[in-house]
Amino acid sequence: TRACLARIETTEPKIDALLSVQGEASLARARALDAEGPDARKPLWGVPVVVKDVLCATNTPTTCGSKILENFVPPYDATAVAKLKDAGAVIIGKANMDEFAMGSSTENSAFKVTRNPWDVSRVPGGSSGGSGATVAARQCFAALGTDTGGSIRLPAAFCGCVGLKPSYGRVSRFGMVAYGSSLDQIGPLTRSVEDAAQVLSVIAGHDPRDSTSVDAPVPGYAAALKGPDALKGVRIGLPREFWGAGVNPEVLASCRAAVDAAVSAGAEVVDISLPHTDYAIATYYIIAMAEASSNLARFDGVRYGLRDKDASELIDMYKRSRTRGFGDEVQRRIIIGTYVLSSGYYDAYYRKAAQVRRLIRRDFEQAYEKCDLICGPTCPTPAFPIGGVVDDPLTMYLMDIFTISLNLAGLPGLSLPVGLGKDTGLPVGLQMFGQYFKEDRLLAAAHGLE
Ligand code: GLN
Predict the structure, then answer these.
(1) Is 127 a known active-site residue?
(2) 52 is catalytic
(3) Spatial CA neighbour of 230 closest among 6, 72, 445
């Protein structure tokens, strides 16, 4: 813990990954754990961990990267955070993020822009960019992120870490401030596949406080890892839509080399198609914004966070508090989300998106008749320059083209670092899609390629 705090002190001025650091408190906790001694029931005994600022944790601010929650300190722990604590982890800080997890670069944080430790002129990805950067800068051993449309996998790819989005329902969302409730999942960003497996084993499982968490046994994910042997006989599906035009040649080359390595280890490659990929962005942004507009209605200046004191009456107070508290991207999404849900437009937009979501799910069901695992790039490009895309929301949304179908289908996915681009020297992530609740097989395959 002391070493991680020292590392934070030297690297934080360059990368701005964290919104708060629990220096004294985490040293005290580490000392207490040390006095108790190691304990088999505490698999993360004394491990310094960072948590995305969208997850409630007692005694720490939980801002969601938003002015509207600037001084909010939750009275309870998110289940994932409580489980980390029970497992002996030391929560040393809270990670920066795009406001309410809306974005792909962490430039939408109301407080600061996180920089990519590999090249500080570039973004770390988003929305869990603080979580990716803190792991890549060796400030901690693991971080929690959340993934609604790629927010764990994208920063993992840009920062050269492992990022795992579990199946919908695998990890309790209790205490995660909701963005798109039917899409959100919490998962780890780590330095290795084994670390991701260890953290998932701790945070997974049923929780009576989240009715969408599934009551299924949690396997010991780390015990299932067995190196390259796991790839023998595995049929890897390569979706045509992911490997063609529009993907940066460096990204393609590194991903291709990783698939070749899998073949050398005994895997077999199968050509597949996910024919509705072209509709994924439109479908996702309708559903996610609709859910967000509903979820963010709770920030009314009354119950939590910022309240405008100059308002003359109630409606005026709502308006002023929300106008001052929410940033531009969040306001854009609330407006679009409200529009697609409004009577007269609901059938044309929201219902249509829900129907296309079914087709996207079916694409995966059909693909998995021919293969066991699906691989492609996590993102069409490596990390882009800070300020390069942020003024162009549509281009920013396109960064999610390869990650969002997975959330629409509820499946697990992982981004694995597969080397550095030949010319840019920036990390490249290979995305691996697994089958529903088969995180053990997904992690084993990723471990085989690591
Ligand atoms: N970039 C996507 C969005 O802005 C995904 C974000 C996320 O997964 N939280 O909605």
Answers:
(1) yes
(2) yes
(3) 445
In the set 151, 213, 321, 405, the catalytic residue is 151
ipTM exceeding 0.95, yes/no: yes
pLDDT in tens, 181-206: 999 999 999 999 999 999 999 999 99
Q: Is the dihedral of CA 141, 62, 183, 394 positive or negative?
A: negative
Tell me the pLDDT tens digit for each residue of 401-414: 999 999 999 999 99
- Of the candidates 402, 408, 378, 387, the one whose C-alpha atom is nearest the C-alpha of residue 161 is 378
Amino acid at position 139, single letter: Q
Of ligand 1's atoms, which has the minimum distance to the CA of residue 329?
A: 4
Question: In terms of pTM, does the model score above 0.90?
Answer: yes
Which of 52, 98, 100, 104 maximizes ligand 1 atoms within 8 Å of its Cβ, making it the mutation to test the pocket? 104
Residue 311 CA to residue 317 CA, distance in Å, equals: 5
Give, as one character, the DSSP assignment of residue 385.
Answer: B
Whether 294 sits among the annotated catalytic residues: the reply is no
Tokens of residue 441, six digits: 């097989």
Q: Which two three-digit tokens encode residue 122?
A: 């570039």
Residue 150 Cβ inside 6 Å of ligand 1? The answer reads yes
**How far is 224 from 445, CA to CA, in rounded Å?**
10
Nearest CA residue ID for atom 5, ligand 1: 149
